[in-house]
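A quick aside before the break. I want you to see a complete sequence-to-structure record at least once, exactly as it would be stored in a machine-readable document. Don't worry about memorizing anything.
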Amino acid sequence: MISLINFKLVMPYNLSIDPETASFMDRCIGYALECNVKHLKIRFCPTILGERHVYCVPQALLNAISVQELDLSYCKLHLPSIGNVTLPFLKRLSLAYVFADDNAISKLIAGSPLIEDMSFISCFGIKTLQIFNLINLVKFSVSIIARLERLEIEAPNLHSLTLRGSTWASVLKVACLKNLKSLAIYRAPISDKWLHEQLNKFPHLESLSLHECDILENIKISSSSLHKLYIKSCEKVARVQIHTPNLHIFSYRGDIISFSSNDLIVPEIHLYIESNNMEISCYIRLIELLNKFNQYFNMVTLASQTGESYIIPSQLRQLLPPPLHKVKELKLSINSARECPIAELVDAMLWISPI
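That is the input. The structure line, written in tokens, reads:
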């Protein structure tokens, strides 16, 4: 009659699943379910990753009335065609390195009507992922699903959406996300047009992150609700235009860009320049960029690998005015101090933003 809140089963590294290990895990999970466990985590760690080498979770686990949080790693979900999933009180689901087909995933979603938080990380066998009729879903994340062909999301109360993938679904549809507040996109082949069209559908978006989206070239964002904007390593981006009057933080990492904004005053900016060729023309573009920030931002953080990107040549310092003379606070972050000419860097910072 023991009542369990948390039960965590982590198997040490095994070459492969064997009948004895599977039987032991079945008994452990059965015991937890008999004790009406609420939070259940199962992690099997094979030395060889493959469908034949991972643990197949028992059918009883997929019909556990008591389970509210389910975390599966390196497992397999298998359902017969007539099998069903009944997880009426499940609120959080995390699948990492899980093997499952469309039938199992579809029934898992349909059988979890109260789900609030759902994530798929490096799963295998899923070709179609459709998120419908989950009115309580507020957080959803998809990360690197091999061979995913179709992803459709319709969740009216979703607040946070994360899409990450080295490969991408050929069909991606997001609809009825009117309450979305946070959107993060990693390594996606999204176009300028697609991004612009989607952002117009999210009137309450507060945080936007774009990482390694290498097709983007000209980012245009107009939003009165946006508070945080992160753009990182989108290698083809050449221009960023934003009209975001309530923006609090702007963070950019990449090559020197053209930047413009309408009447923007932002408390904080983080700028990490990644440029392989800092010629005189590049330094001029950098000064022009910093001068734009001088008009809009109170605090600026400059970052780079060694800091040398910000050592403006002396001939340009004699010809041009300091670009950040209005900024109240300037910070510098470098990754490798050993390679950094400290004296030159300090001198450069004092020119960029004179006391």
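Two observations worth writing down. DSSP finds six helices and 22 strands in the chain. The mean pLDDT is 89. We'll return to this after the break.
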